[in-house]
Structure formats: C-alpha cells, structure tokens
Specification:
Helix content: 40-55%
Number of strands: 0
Distance between the termini: 39 Å
Shape: elongated
Amino acid sequence: MYEKKIRLKIRRLPEDLRREVLDYIESLLKKYKGKEIGTRKFKFDWEGGLSEIREKFTSVELQHKSLEWR
C-alpha cells in the first residue's frame, strides 16, 4: 500500500537525499531486527493474578479501584 507512495516520493529526491533515505531505512531494519513489527500477540501471563481476592471484590469494584489508583 505505502510502497508505491514511497517509491514515487523517493524518485523526486536528489541523489544525496536518496542515500539518506536508504541509510534511515537500514537503521530502522537494524533497530527492529528480529522483531516482527505489528505482529506481537497479547500475552495473558497476568491472567489469574487477582484470583485470591475474587470473593472480596466484583469486577466492577476492581475497575473503580483501578481508576482511584491512577
């Protein structure tokens, strides 16, 4: 989707700025190497963390408490 727009805009740049764009792209690739951008799944490792207070509070009461703590 963005590739065509990027290509068109890069073509309009002078040669020295094209090199800067390439350097920037390479730095982004290096920065995010090994990370798949936008495909991280939500972790549920916190699930059950409040199970010991289940009998004390309802989910609505916990929502209100969390708003107080902010």
